[in-house]
């Protein structure tokens, strides 16, 4: 029955208090949480300032920006970055997006401390760890072009970057290589005395969540910094160490030898299991600079992901643990210790993400980042975790959001349009933080399902590995199954189904549109159209990712052909909007243009927007706004409803019958 206190209006046409511009302005990002003594620092991106990232410190009178105006603290290591901030012993370091050099920040001035590369941005840095005394740091160095210290030819016969861990003297900029040889390195993790260093390493074709090894060695400082004999601690043999942290003489780490990321402790060659639970206390290492472990008053805390929720979990010393109950928090993105409290980047379904200081005993949280209005958080559509049957007698998962409005309700005889979201990665997950995109749709009368298809994280290694060799099969099947489940339950209109996703989610979206007739419209945001092009024309970090997700390249080239959306465009008939950044090095614009050319050739209604100055994902407020408004206008136009918003249809290429 309709609610008499609300206006009855067709789904999809409701006026919303959440404008695209509001959502864009509120899309503040928080990364690289670092604690130095009593100081809590982080990186904060501002979409209203072109997506610029500033170094921020929690002060007595609120957050204070340490970096100078115009400084953009981002690193391109691994293209996804992370770890662009380092602080310790009174020293603050940050990577500059413009030149990729490490800068020391003092009194609002940033001074470069690493040498200028021979080619622009040819030497990139991440995870700067300041050593005791504050005179040097260790960090990941990724070297491209003529600066490479050695040849490094990949399977495609071209030179790729060299990743190493190096020691850098802050006064002179002189460096000493400590770890070299592995294709990739993570960390470094240095103990409080600066006498031992641990690190992660892995090699092609593995990704860090497939098989990553933890190593440790004595660290000798002085005039000639060096490492002692390296000792293997864990991982690298089919298990993947996700993170590590020194706690006095013992090294804590998260590993998954039994199928779930759990916490272990290593000391003097002996390993002890601290956790034995069917939960994932760890996360995929897509970026650097995310702390997943912290110790407060002797108690070990870890970031635990389960069914879309990421909690801070306190281990109880008997192999179990309990999730901290913090008001409003449904997602903890990073952990650190500050005094007897936890510092964390956290948010929830109705709580804007920010930097918090939390008493782990009471769960009382104090916001360290600026309090900000977030219209998306006020919409109030709370996701419900759903599990549903899918192909091959398997089950899959997702987060379902109902249409939500304080002022409007849909007609009794109408079911809402459904927006199906396909997350990127694909080794990632839909999360229960404020999902501005979901709230944007639900507040206008759409239902939303964010699908955690097989291959998603937070459900153990078996579920995560289910997509190995089956990317383009299980993810599409699970997305269709989620859609059909909601239609069967009367929660979605079968004639008004929309699918959209970015990056790997864009690939799933494109393949679903090219191989099924389930959807009435679709949106691809920097999606993959040709797996062959992705295998041969992407960055080092993901250059062998498809070996496990699709098959070895080039031996299985035909599989790449068969699984590529561009192979199936002759079956495509669904209107589509395509959005792309012109500086995307992960999924280059050529991928989008393949699909646009096919849409144009087949006379299918479509729109294409190429965003200038954007990389893999949109950071500028104006572009975030335009991408949302363009999709709403496009979907309304092709499905025959008029959104309440005063928005313009993007440049539109109609089909023959339009």
Brief digest:
This protein is an alpha+beta fold and 658 residues long.
What report would you give on this structure?
The structure is a single chain. This protein has 658 residues and is α+β, with helices and mostly antiparallel strands. It has 11 helices and 40 strands. The longest helix is centred in the C-terminal third of the chain and has 19 residues, at 621-639. The model has no long low-confidence stretch (mean pLDDT 94).
Instruction: Characterize the largest beta sheet: strand count, sense, and whether it forms a barrel.
Output: 9 strands, mixed
* Helix run count: 11
Radius of gyration: 24 Å
* Fraction of residues in helix: 10-25%
How are strands sequenced across the largest beta sheet? 31-32-35-34-36-37-38-39-40
Give me the secondary-structure category: alpha+beta
Enumerate the spans where pLDDT stays under 50 for 5 or more consecutive residues. Answer: none
Shape: globular
DSSP strand count: 40
Strand content: 25-35%
Mean pLDDT score: 94
Distance between the termini: 37 Å
């Amino acid at each position: 029955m309709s609610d008499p206190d609300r206006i009855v209006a067709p789904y999809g046409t409701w006026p919303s208090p959440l404008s695209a511009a509001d959502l864009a302005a509120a899309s503040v990002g928080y990364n690289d949480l670092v604690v130095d003594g009593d100081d809590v620092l982080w990186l904060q991106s501002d979409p209203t300032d072109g997506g610029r990232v500033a170094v921020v410190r929690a002060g007595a009178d609120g957050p204070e920006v340490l970096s100078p105006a115009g400084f953009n603290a981002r690193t391109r290591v691994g293209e996804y970055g992370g770890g662009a901030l380092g602080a310790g012993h009174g020293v603050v370091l940050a990577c500059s997006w413009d030149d990729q050099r490490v800068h020391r920040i003092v009194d609002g001035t940033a001074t470069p401390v690493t040498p200028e590369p021979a080619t622009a941005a040819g030497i990139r840095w991440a995870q700067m760890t300041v050593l005791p005394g504050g005179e040097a740091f260790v960090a990941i160095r990724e070297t491209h072009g003529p600066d490479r210290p050695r040849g490094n030819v990949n399977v495609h016969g071209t030179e790729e970057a060299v990743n190493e861990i190096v020691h850098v003297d802050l006064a002179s900029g002189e460096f000493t290589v400590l770890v070299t040889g592995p294709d990739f390195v993570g960390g470094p993790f240095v103990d409080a005395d600066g006498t031992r260093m641990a690190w992660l390493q892995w090699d092609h074709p593995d990704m860090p969540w497939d098989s990553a090894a933890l190593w440790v060695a004595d660290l000798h400082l002085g005039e000639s910094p060096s490492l002692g004999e390296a000792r293997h601690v864990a991982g690298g043999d089919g298990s993947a160490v996700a993170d590590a942290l020194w706690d006095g003489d013992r090294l804590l780490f998260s590993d998954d030898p039994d199928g779930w990321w759990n916490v272990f402790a290593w000391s003097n060659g002996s390993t002890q299991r601290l956790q034995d639970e069917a939960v994932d206390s760890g996360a995929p290492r897509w970026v650097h600079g995310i702390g997943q472990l912290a110790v407060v008053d002797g108690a070990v805390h870890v970031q635990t992901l389960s069914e879309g929720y990421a909690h801070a979990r306190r281990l109880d010393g008997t192999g179990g643990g309990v999730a901290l109950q913090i008001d409003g928090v449904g997602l903890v993105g990073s952990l650190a210790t500050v005094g007897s409290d936890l510092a964390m980047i956290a948010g929830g379904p109705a709580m804007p993400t920010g930097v918090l200081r939390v008493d782990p005993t009471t769960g009382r949280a104090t916001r360290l980042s600026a309090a900000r209005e977030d219209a998306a958080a006020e919409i109030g559509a709370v996701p419900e975790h759903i599990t549903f049957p899918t192909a091959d007698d398997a089950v899959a998962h997702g987060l379902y959001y109902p249409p939500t409005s304080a002022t409007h309700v849909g007609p009794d005889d109408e079911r809402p349009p459904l927006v199906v979201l396909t997350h990127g990665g694909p080794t990632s997950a839909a999360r229960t933080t404020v999902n501005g995109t979901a709230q944007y749709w639900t507040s206008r009368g759409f239902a939303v399902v964010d699908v955690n298809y097989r291959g998603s994280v937070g459900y153990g290694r078996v579920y995560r590995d289910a997509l190995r060799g089956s990317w383009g099969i299980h993810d599409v099947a699970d997305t269709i199954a989620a859609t059909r489940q909601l239609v069967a339950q009367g929660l979605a209109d079968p004639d008004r189904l929309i699918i959209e996703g970015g990056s790997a989610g864009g690939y799933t979206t494109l393949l679903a549109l090219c191989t099924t007739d389930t959807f009435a419209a679709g949106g691809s945001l920097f999606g993959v159209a040709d797996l062959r092009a992705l295998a041969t024309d992407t960055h080092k970090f993901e250059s062998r990712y498809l070996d496990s997700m699709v098959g070895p390249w080039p031996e299985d080239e035909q599989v790449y052909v068969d699984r590529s959306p561009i192979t199936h465009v002759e079956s495509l008939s669904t209107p589509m909007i395509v959005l792309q950044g012109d500086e995307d090095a992960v999924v280059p614009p050529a991928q989008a243009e393949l699909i646009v050319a096919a849409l144009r050739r087949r006379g299918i209604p479509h729109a294409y927007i190429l965003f200038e100055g954007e990389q893999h994902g949109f950071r500028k407020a104006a572009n975030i706004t335009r991408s949302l408004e363009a999709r709403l206008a496009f979907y309304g136009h092709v499905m025959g409803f008029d959104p309440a918003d005063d928005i313009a249809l993007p440049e539109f290429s109609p089909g023959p019958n339009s």
